[in-house]
Specification:
The protein is an alpha/beta fold. It has 18 helices and 14 strands. It has a six-stranded parallel sheet, sandwiched between helices. A hairpin with a 5-residue loop joins strand 1 and strand 2. The termini are far apart. InterPro entries: WecG_TagA_CpsF.
Length: about 425
């Protein structure tokens, strides 16, 4: 790596002043906790502080201080920040069995001069919101980038937000759970891919994504609720479902959405030779998405495409012709983008007539990969606010879904929590 490509790793003086100011304020607020822990430790004749050593993403030892004899042991970490062993926001502290993602070469950096490990980090925020699995961390290059200059403060604030609303370190992680009567599989992205590429079971298996909108729809549409619950896999999509799961005491392994799933699916499909059929969206959209995917993944096999504007006759002749077209293509995986609730009900009605291994409802996915709609910036996704971007892109089509639907969902969460 050339010298001009080296990353600046010295902590900005402003960042250290910011650390000391915030940590000092935190110590003042936590002083009753410290006093109670000190009193208990005195009567038990043991030290007030417990010392631990962990590793950060650079595999350096991190000396941590925790309070004894209190439920708020993490308040002791503020002392680690004051001592300089930790920064408020910095390099990731490795979770158990963590793996370091290396999309590009690791930056050339002296370990001794690298930024301090953080009480919070960009990687911990991504784990909280489900952008990466619980046992993974981000590349060092991405972590260093979030620490540069005044980005430190904005990155710290976003991490505090995700920690408050989406962190689930002490929550249970069941294989599945129910939210407003919908059965949801608690899968990681890797588990979702493993299911998609699992051997043919003798009949087509179906998968759907559940988000705030589908939960709201299922309240008044019993046929949709039935179709979702009869799917073989139901994936949690979005920060709203994550928030709802947390209210149930459940921590989601990942945020499984079609936009993040499709690139991984294509990479694996071109390695395994499995064929994909794209069905849905307006005329020309699925075809353009297929062309873009073929450019990006030159060895992928798109078995066929079909727009979703197919009007059925009384005898269901057009639907039968469509099913024959899909089966003749010998597709292994069908991606169905008809919009909810039509796509879920279509899968439930036709799964027995499909010869493909898996069929999964993907909503408006083809609009993204055709280039019609850009993806939300990363900083919005880091806070679970991708819906704001969608609302800004399509205000007329999406205002009822988000402006009315999101507060309605939060109200239902509030009532559910009170009833518990």
């Amino acid at each position: 790596m050339h010298s001009r490509d080296r990353l600046s790793t010295r902590q900005h003086p402003f960042s250290r002043v910011f650390d000391i100011t915030i940590a000092s304020a935190g110590l003042i607020l936590c002083s009753p906790v410290y006093a109670l822990a000190a009193a208990r430790s005195y009567f038990r004749s043991e030290p007030c502080l417990r010392r631990e050593i962990a590793l950060d993403a650079l595999h350096r030892p991190v000396h941590l201080l925790y309070l004894r004899n209190t439920d708020y042991a993490n308040c002791g970490l503020l002392l680690s920040v004051m001592k300089g062993n930790l920064s408020l926001f910095g390099i990731d502290r490795l979770p158990s069995n963590a793996t370091l993602e290396t999309r590009r070469s690791a930056p050339e950096v002296s370990v001794d001069s690298a930024p301090a490990p953080g009480l919070l980090s960009l990687a911990s925020a991504h784990r909280d919101i489900g952008l990466i699995p619980p046992n993974e961390t981000l590349s060092l290059e991405q972590q260093f980038d979030s620490l540069r200059g005044f980005r430190y403060v904005s990155s710290f604030c976003r991490s505090v937000f995700t920690q408050l609303f989406f962190s689930g370190e002490k929550l249970r992680r069941p294989d599945s759970f129910y939210l407003f009567g919908l059965r949801i599989n608690n899968n990681s992205m890797q588990e979702a891919l493993d299911w998609l590429f699992s051997p043919y079971s003798g009949e087509c298996e179906t998968g759907v994504f559940v988000n705030v909108n589908s939960i709201n729809q299922s309240h008044k549409d019993k046929a949709l609720k039935s179709a979702i619950n009869r799917a073989d896999r139901v994936f949690a999509d979005g920060s709203g479902v994550r928030l709802g799961a947390r209210k149930q005491g459940v921590h989601l392994k990942g945020n499984i959405n079609g936009t993040d799933l499709l690139p991984r699916l294509c990479e694996r499909a071109q390695e395994s030779g499995l064929k994909i059929f794209l069905l849905g969206s307006k005329p020309g959209v699925a075809a353009q998405a297929a062309r873009n995917l073929c450019q990006r993944y030159p060895f992928i096999h798109i078995a066929g495409v079909q727009h979703g504007y197919i009007e059925n006759d009384d005898e269901g002749r057009h639907e039968k012709q469509l099913l024959e077209k899909i089966n003749r293509s010998h597709a292994d995986i069908l991606l169905l983008g008809l919009g909810s609730p039509r796509q879920e009900q279509w899968l439930e009605r036709n799964r027995k007539h499909l010869s493909c291994r898996k069929a999964i409802a993907v909503g408006g996915l083809f609009d993204y990969y055709s280039g019609n709609i850009p993806r939300a910036p990363l900083f919005l996704r880091e806070m679970g606010f991708e819906w704001l971007w969608r609302l800004a892109q399509e205000p007329r089509q999406k205002w009822q879904r988000y402006v009315y639907g999101n507060p309605l969902y939060l109200f239902r969460l509030f009532r559910m929590k009170r009833s518990q």
